[in-house]
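To make this tangible, we now present a fold written out as tokens:
***
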Amino acid sequence: MAIMTADDADQLDLRIFPDREQLGVAAAADIADELRAVLQAQRAARVIFASAPSQSETLAALAQEPGIDWSKVTAFHMDEYLGLPADAPQKFATWLRTTIFDRVPLGAVHYIDAEGLEQESADAYAALLEEAPIDIVCLGIGVNGHIAFNDPPVADFNDPALVKIVDLDEKSRVQQVQDGLFATVDDVPERAITLTVPMLMSGKRLFCMVPGELKAEALRATVNEWVSTNWPSTILRTHPRCTVYADTDAASLINQS
């Protein structure tokens, strides 16, 4: 799965909104329009969803959008912690069920199995993803520029895998505490299963929601830095159909470098 990494390949569509609520409504409307168009053109749609508070407003608004035949939509999520108890509230599968999956009548939902043998779980999820193209990816950007759990130390723009096991970067683990998901860094798992960068970039249409001051430096880097794994999110600039939705807090440092 080839990925173009030329530094002058800048195709990003950046949209800035006054606050995260307006960001969420606008992003949800665009995602809904794309879903309706896909379902008008073909029999089914396949969508990957990120799990993070940055996605909350968008997914809440998306669940209210009319005219979507959710029974024709297959949903995936893009990463999951390893080592948490099966009933842990911090599990991304649990968050997605509460936020979107239980609120719309999806045709199918495929969850990452974080309880089984790790590599077998990664391979099984990759096989599900390979069954057909991915129509839509709804994602965010981490404070270190990660997309899914492709942190700078493990991100690979030409990764041969679709799903892999990773060690989490310290900045990613701290972010989970800053987001209110864990009480301390010691509580945050050190490893996860994640979709790789090429898998995410294979989506036909990418919608990236980035609200909040905590993401300001990452968004600045995404827009202004060279395309490299130093800031994995810079690869989004090479996708022909990627829209980034930011609020003014997240966009506050753009063009200051």
